[in-house]
Amino acid sequence: MISRGVVQAIEGKRITIEQSAFANASAVTDDSCFGCMKIECKNRRKLIIAENSLHLPLKLGQTVEVATGSGSLLIQGVFAVLPPALGFIAGFFLVAFIFPNSGESARAAGGALFMFAGALVFYLFRGLFPAKNRSRIVRILDT
């Protein structure tokens, strides 16, 4: 995924970039944001931490293009879907094991309960240990 933003801070190779639709409307436009018509980013700033692995000569206020690897996004997506799915399966079979005479609806309810519990646990886990964002600056759009 490629996005654009304005350099806000430079700390060695670690660069803080503000991706906001209205911070610099002429320079910061992201085609991937068109689907929501920029409703999500109208009132808040989105900060991206990226690496300057190409050793580009960056200055504060420059507009840059940031790329995130598709492999990283795919892995994050799989791990976001996996805990709820495994929770449903575990809840379904756990209810069947504990209550052998239970019907399909009771097992499905147990599965749904464990599915939401798995999603909540994963959400809390990601809050404590956020995924490593492997964003990197690929080019400078203005000088």
Note the main attributes of this structure:
single chain, 143 residues, alpha+beta, five-stranded antiparallel β-sheet, 2 helices, 5 strands, 24% strand, rod-shaped
Q: Structural class, from secondary structure content?
A: alpha+beta
Number of strands: 5
Low-confidence stretches: 22-29
What is the CATH third-level topology name of the largest domain?
Answer: OB fold (Dihydrolipoamide Acetyltransferase, E2P)
CATH architecture of the largest domain: Beta Barrel
Order of helices and strands: EEEEHHE
How many individual helices? 2
Average of pLDDT: 80
User: What's the CATH class of the largest domain, please?
Assistant: Mainly Beta
The geometry reads as: rod-shaped
Total separate domains: 2
Ends apart, CA distance between termini: 23 Å
As a percent range, the share of strand residues is 15-25%
Question: Which sequence of strands runs across the widest sheet?
Answer: 3-2-1-4-5
Percentage of residues in helical conformation = 25-40%
Q: Characterize the biggest β-sheet.
A: 5 strands, antiparallel
Radius of gyration: 21 Å
Explained architecture:
By secondary structure, the chain is of the alpha+beta class. It folds into two domains: 2-70 and 131-140, OB fold (Dihydrolipoamide Acetyltransferase, E2P) (Beta Barrel); 74-128, no CATH class. It is built from two helices and five strands. It has helices spanning 70-98, 104-128, and strands spanning 2-11, 14-19, 46-51, 63-68, 135-140. Strands 3-2-1-4-5 form a five-stranded antiparallel sheet. The longest helix has 29 residues, at 70-98. Mean pLDDT is 80; it is low at 22-29.
